[in-house]
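Example record

The entry below shows one chain as it appears in the dataset: sequence first, then structure tokens.
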Amino acid sequence: MKPFFLTIASGLLLFFFLPLQAQEVKIDPFADPKVLFKSLTHKEAVQREAALDYIKIEKPPSLIPYLKKAILAKKWLFFSADYTNRPVCEEALRLYPFSVSLKYWIEILQETGSATMKLEVMNYISSSGHRSIVMPIVEELKNPFFIVRQGAAKILRGRGDDRVYPFILSMMNDPAPVVRVYAIEAMNYLYDSRFQREFLNMINDGDAWVRVSVIYSIRHNRIENTIHIIRNSAMNDGDGRVRFAAINFLLENRDPALSGILTKAINEHDRITRLSAVNAFSKLNLAMAVTYFCTRLQFEEDDEIKEIIVDSLVHRESVPSTAGIVKVLRGDKDVSLRVKAAFLLGLRRDIQTMYSLIDALKDEQDTVRAEACNSLANYQMIQATDALVRAISGNKSRYVRSAALYAIVKSKTRNATVGLFDIFAHEQEPVLRDHLYKTLRELIVKYH
């Protein structure tokens, strides 16, 4: 039988010790990662905030696989719980230190098909400064989305890590032309003169877009001592797209050899080459350009090129020869080009051109006939005056008749007086009759 005092002591110990022991045992409501994830993605904000506060303090590694799965949920499953919970899961994963989460962020970068997410992940993990992120980002230089490739190149440019260059050099030798183009794109941000020879050799690549990309990259990187390479491409490349890029490069750099290149290119069979030559000629202040324009217009069938040539001639108000312009005036389907051609022929003032304008008075379009009348005003010849009088009497269009009458006034010729009087005697249209009266009175006062 225990002594009485031992019984009392045991009872006191049990009274004080057991409650203290019970107080030290805490129940963790988020010990199970499934429970924590369910709370994190709960529709109630209070539940989500409680989960985020817990993650911020405890940072349980067991939750990360659940976060990764939700972040990588397919976009086309928009109504799935995982996809709609993606933002809060990304927020939660950012609460982990890079020492724990970086591996998973890299896996997300490699596994996601979303260009936007790739860009966000690359920008985020680049702040870690860890060397392990370089090669996963380098891999994105091959990504089919331009925004991803550009983002990767910009991030890599800021790191100065030479491990990128063997990868880019391997891309330059890839059998797929599109990958070689991507390699040149990367060089727009990561160009290094140590690899200039390999880079410039790509101007001889078998794919035209690769060669075009090289030209644009030379321009972007302002690589010196390459003008001879660009000239050769402008003169001799077999693809018009490459010659177009090369000619524009030479134009921007005001290369003195460009005019000689253009004189050959403007008559090439390839449409893009001719277009690039015409565009460049129109921007150069060269007297010789109008001569080549007029010659080319005799044979050109492309509407866009004809429009550029005609607009340039109108702007310069110079017509060395008229054969091409007459061809446009007589047969081009574009009304605006025929109107401009009629204007240009009015600058010449020779007999042959005058008869072309007289023929244009039979054009089916009022605007062309009116412009021909305006140009005939520059010819103080009886044939021109008679044609204008006939245009007044033989046209139903008030617009053309008025244009012919104003042309007679502008030409300051007395030969129209009798013809205008005959028209005035029978004219019924009040506005034109008034104009005829004033014109006749002016002619009589001035010349008779």
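Notes for this example: The two ends are 162 Å apart (CA to CA). Residues 27-96 form one domain.
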